[in-house]
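Researcher: I need the complex structure. Ligand is pyridoxal-5'-phosphate. Inputs:
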Amino acid sequence: MFIFDNNIVIDLITDRQGYADQYSDIALFCLKNNRGCLSSSQLHNLRFVFSRHYKQHLENYLAFEKQCIIVKTPSYIDFSSPLAAMDMDDYLIELSACCAEARVITLDKRFLAMSELTLHPDNFYALALKETTGIPFLDLKAVNAPYTSGFEQALDNVISSGWYIQGSEVKAFEQEFADYCGVEHCIGVANGLDALILIFRAYIEMGILKAGDEVIVPANTYIASILAITENNLTPVLLEPDAATYNLNPQQVEQAITPKTKAIFAVHLYGQLADMPALKAIAEKHNLLLLEDSAQAHGASLNDIKAGAWGDASGFSFYPGKNLGALGDAGAVTTNNEQLAQTIRALGNYGSHKKYENRYKGINSRLDEMQAAMLRVKLKYLDSDITRRQDIAKRYRREINNPLLQLPSVSDESMHVWHLFVVKCEHRDLLLNHLAEQNVQAIIHYPIPPHKQLAYAGLNALVLPITEHMHSCVLSIPIGPQLDDFEITSVIQAINSYGI
Ligand SMILES: Cc1ncc(COP(=O)(O)O)c(C=O)c1O
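Model: Output:
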């Protein structure tokens, strides 16, 4: 329980010292969790102050008072107590705090010095957080909560349509997502990995790629990018990323090109667009395909060109945790190339262009009606969700000031949609433990690089120091539109309080 001292109540309600912004998330947190209190001894004082000096705020105060739990003030008074001698009002509040096992949130320096039951608002976050279930890395229920009624309506429409595969929802989503990305074609598929596999497969069917061709790809990507290459018997050429942006370094790309190189595969890792103008220039100069793994970067843009519209083709994942996440697996390919679009559509539908006629040995990888309907509900809010992510990232970058951590660097604000906020820390385990103690969950993306995985035993001997170091020290902290300001401040304070 937390009792608000008079000074905090007045500051909050009148914005007396510009404090409303600073402390309103504390009040909100307490009231939301039924833990905000006033001592009955405060009521007459507060009502008097508001009626006499802040009449215009009286109504707001009374509304606030109504939401607080009123804690009784005991009648036993120890007149020998130093606090009673100094300030009887503070003493009575402390007595109430004692009864309710509460802490008094106050800015009064003398009160803070004389009572162990007081708490400065700056120290509130860590304490309050410890008493809650904490901040999970990603609370998908909270992410999807605002869409519940939209989902229910969309689901009802699908159920009553009687058409569950390749119907009007998929068609509409494909058009809406193509428009969103600024491309001509979007092909819905079953998941992000299939989107990437099918891009390479289609180029093979079209005679543009063949087994053994080299594909340049960042070594620190999620393994799905590499799996898509090897699944098609192409050769991944793993390149060290730029240590600051975690993305492909165009200079290194140019140096890695051999006569066998046929494609540059840019991964917009963590939500930040790779240096696409430079990569596009290199691809054009050397007549290479430029492909994108946009699984983490829906909406990231540069010069008004979005992820998914820079390359010859791009794969998206709508895995539930992604910035645009379905309620199950889902994915898509975007492209301006009509022949490629048709080939991918056929490959994902048993290789069939026409019902019961099979041009290719295809697979079954289709976006289903239900997931498309869910995605249509959420797509409308993708831009506002991204803005919220960018605002949170701005706060993290401005307010996290722990010298033991390195914050992510950004070349252009619109290029980053902050799927993940990844910091670097040399003693990552210590930081992880510290955050766990503070009830903040953090996650590693990713602990083992693809070339050190058992699945790629043939690549295990590769030495890639930038990539390996990155995997030993990166840590993702919570970010997403579901987090409120109180939670953001708590994460910042938890990180800033870390020390070895
Ligand atoms: C960079 C990257 N590529 C590809 C994928 C694969 O997407 P999915 O999980 O939908 O198969 C993911 C998602 O986990 C990813 O992060």
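Model: Summary of the prediction. The longest helix spans residues 382-399.
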